[in-house]
Amino acid sequence: SNFFLNKLLKNKKYIFRKYYLNFGGHLFMENRKETGKTQKIDLRIQKTLENIHNAFKEMIFEMDFEKITVKELSERARINKKTFYSHYSNLDELLMKIQDEMSEKYVNAVSLYKLPDEFDKVNREFFIFMEENGKWFEKITASKNFTYIRQKMIDKVMENTWEKSDFIKLLSPAEKNIFYSYIQSSTLGIYTQWILDGKKSL
């Protein structure tokens, strides 16, 4: 009986091995190949988007938004126009996408501070954030040509910071509007004036 049992187990191992190599193993290798292809595609897309964003930021700093064209942007990003339109319907959508990303990054940077108690720290983070993101973002924040997109960013930041403060919940709608107006104008006003003065040390 042991002889037949050992033979049966060997046959089972053979059958399993044959099945795995001819079918299961093949699928496994195919899945690995597909995963590898997906990773390569994802990396290519990521690199393409980085090139588009970097070229766009350069152009924002160099010229007014109205003068930016998809043709020149594509040339700088080393892609064709078809590739651009596979990711964005137009330049406005690209600008909005970048605006969302920057707003989210800033909110994450100040999310742990308690408002209004640590408003000074939030202001400090604002100046640090501006310096880290370079001239193009400085232009969006200070230039009159980007008033609309800047206000969209401000609204998103306020919604995810001050709106969650217990202090704000105690204010009436009129009081909240006045307070928000003061916060926005004071911080941006100080920053804009600092830019106009050549970022001189205080």
Summary, kept brief:
The protein has 202 residues and is mainly alpha-helical. The chain has helices at residues 2-62, 70-77, 81-87, 91-110, 119-132, 134-142, 147-160, 166-169, 173-196.
Percent of residues in β-strands: under 5%
Low-pLDDT sequence parts: 12-23
| Overall morphology | globular
Helix content: over 70%
Distance between the termini: 94 Å
**In total, how many beta strands?**
0
What does the main sheet amount to? none
Please count the helical segments: 9
Radius of gyration: 28 Å
> Mean of the pLDDT scores?
83
Element order: H for helix, E for strand: HHHHHHHHH
Question: Helix/strand-derived class?
Answer: mainly alpha
